[in-house]
Amino acid sequence: MSRVQLIPFRIEEITTAAPQIPEGVRMIKAPEVWEKAVSGKGNVIAILDTGCQSDHPNLEDRIIAGRNFTPDYNKDEANFEDNNGHGTHVAGTAAGSLRDGGITGVAPEAQLLILKVLNAEGSGDYAGIISAIQYAIDWTGPNGEKTTVISMSLGGPDDVPELHEAVKRAVDEGIPVVCAAGNEGDASPATDEFGYPGAYMEVIQVGAVDFNRKIAPFSNTNNEIDLVAPGVNIQSTYLDGKYARFSGTSMATPHVSGALALVKNIAETEFDRKLTEAELYAQLVRRTVPLGYPKTAEGNGLLELDALEKIEQILLRLGSSEDAKT
Predict the structure, then answer these.
(1) Mean pLDDT of all residues in the chain?
(2) Which of 12, 42, 206, 319 is deepest in the core (most CB within 10 A)?
(3) Active site residue 49
(4) Is position 55 annotated as part of the catalytic site?
(5) Could you list the residue ranges that cross the membrane (predicted)?
(6) Which pLDDT value is given to residue 101?
(7) What is the pLDDT of residue 188?
(8) Has residue 2 got a pLDDT over 70?
(9) Which of 307, 308, 310, 291 is nearest to 299 (CA)?
């Protein structure tokens, strides 16, 4: 059996400074709903990746806990530091702090559970991934916090039954599992490319678009794509307190993971109760906009968190004009 790998990605640029609200966060309209969603406060996003720089200025106050599931650092379970860079970038997109002189993520008040499942080379075994998923499901924070979302920007070619069972258990426990579609795309929606766990029906599989709302040519296409998010030239946190631009479906995924923290806060306030995983998924896809591509490429469309508010405003305007006529 092959190992699980980081889904290939491109490092476009590394810098010491960054815009406070990156273009990807703006594109999905996260700032428009921060007030209503309390910026994701009260939610915990489990990031299964290469770890995270725990003292990065934009991340140090977001990390609630972490654990190492790899042989790195002499198998020290307490050391979840990032020795690759990918995990730090993903974590920053999901929940980087909104503060002066740095960069913010989609849900800047959510907390991060960092589970290091990939080593410095971006490789890990299925047993470690499965253990980390089970850990995320069972984890309880110091004040009774529980995992809200599991985010995985990784994949492999093998459909492993034990991995599928772990994913299904998370969903059964009410935890959405967000996965990158993969970067083996050939720019044709007519041909399928599958990676696991992304291709499992139970996960929320995320494809990538650029800032012109065009599907990235590398983005996998298949009949299990759920939605798309920004994944080209995405600026986020990086090693040594720096920032970097990466491209890949790995970068699209944490946009959706962070968005679920916002959607959960908005929808559960409106319904005045806890929502199931299926209900959270429904609330997420209600906040998408079709781009005109086949469903195998874009699923339900591009994530736009203020889409419902826009529809409500249009309906109100139509209602007002009808009233004026009568």
Answers:
(1) 92
(2) 206
(3) yes
(4) no
(5) none
(6) 74
(7) 76
(8) no
(9) 291
Which value, in Å, is the radius of gyration of the alpha carbons in the chain? Answer: 19
Burial of 179 (0-12, 13-18, 19+ CB in 10 A): buried
Q: How confident is the model at residue 321 (pLDDT cuts 50, 70, 90)?
A: low
Q: What pLDDT score does 325 carry?
A: 60
pLDDT for 317: 65
- Amino acid at position 110, single letter: A
**Is residue 219 among the annotated active site residues?**
no
Residue whose C-alpha is closest to residue 6's, from 182, 167, 258, 161: 182
Residue 48 and residue 132 in contact, taking contact as beta carbons nearer than 8 Å? yes
pLDDT one-digit tens code per residue, 145-161: 999 999 999 988 889 99
Q: Which residue in the list 49, 72, 82, 125 is annotated as catalytic?
A: 49
Task: Dig out the tokens for 264 from the structure.
Answer: 């959960």
* Of 236, 247, 250, 257, catalytic: 250
Spell out the domains of the chain, with CATH numbers in brackets. Answer: 4-325 (3.40.50.200)
Which is the catalytic residue, given 54, 56, 82, 86? 86
Reported pTM: 0.93
